[in-house]
Amino acid sequence: xxxxxxxxxxxxxxxxxxxxxxxxxxxxxxxxxxxxxxxxxxxxxxxxxxxxxxxxxxxxxxxxxxxxxxxxxxxxxxxxxxxxxxxxxxxxxxxxxxxxxxxxxxxxxxxxxxxxxxxxxxxxxxxxxxxxxxxxxxxxxxxxxxxxxxxxxxxxxxxxxxxxxxxxxxxxxxxxxxxxxxxxxxxxxxxxxxxxxxxxxxxxxxxxxxxxxxxxxxxxxxxxxxxxxxxxxxxxxxxxxxxxxxxxxxxxxxxxxxxxxxxxxxxxxxxxxxxxxxxxxxxxxxxxxxxxxxxxxxxxxxxxxxxxxxxxxxxxxxxxxxxxxxxxxxxxxxxxxxxxxxxxxxxxxxxxxxxxxxxxxxxxxxxxxxxxxxxxxxxxxxxxxxxxxxxxxxxxxxxxxxxxxxxxx
Length: 409
Prior knowledge:
- By secondary structure, the protein is mainly β.
- Helix content is 7%, strand content 48%.
- It has 4 helices and 18 strands.
- It is globular and about 65 Å long.
- The model is unreliable at 1-21, 237-252 and 254-265 (pLDDT under 50).
């Protein structure tokens, strides 16, 4: 879960809170020299080939929000973080993350809400953190921070796979802006709660708040279980004709919290997300994990409630200190036709399987080779050629191979 090597329970908890996902030599050095302030980051470059060979006018890779360009070298991300997070009651600190590159276009910046903007820079975390002297210490965060839901992370070095999964891409928030409270009851139990301005936005796109809360259980050092709930008016509301008239379904998707699809009714139509994550370090070599999401959208399709759910499984095997093999499998049931909105595309499902080989060449330099197969009941993936209407030909299958190089500092 959001890891570079074998998952640790402490690391998983910190990552879920949106704090340091990894630390390179620069972070270690600056922590001792700049009044405890840490600096760090990573540079991520990749190449992906889509075996569907989509037409140049529609050369994206379906089902992806990150690294979704076909047959070209991409500067996915140059990320820099600065932080001085508090550790004891009465202390105050901060966290600041800035990202440049293709990934920033997916996340959105502080002034441009939603996925798909044209900005190559994103400030996706910027918050003040204070530990109030209440009980064991109540952590209060105010600002923009990485969402706590999900097994995967915005930051590529913190994941086992190069490509982000279906659940991360379609069913989970990436960032939230508002207030977050965290309280550790003891060494095993921790609770969180807060109010945010929707999903993946800074400037609220309606006049209502979203509640989020969670509970984490760590029964032993090698086991991590977390349940997170989001409840607020963040649905698509595609029933009122707000979808772009050019929407043909091929490589086009809806997404929770995207202001492009919010309607005047969005203050009243609520979305419930229940997100369950678990991981287990079996031993030094093997780690397994899982992620289950259930979503209910009020009044989402043809003035009716709509549901969808997804399941993901993860396995990682460390061959040695430098080499690992990771496999991910996912399934999404979209029977109500929310993700790829097309009146004739109900009773749809998507699934994918990904195999990734990761090798650390030297300290801080990680390379990955990845093969991924995507499938859908409907023809939603761009294929070679253009049809008579001017849209890309479509297929119900998609296979890609990718190479990634990451330098973390």
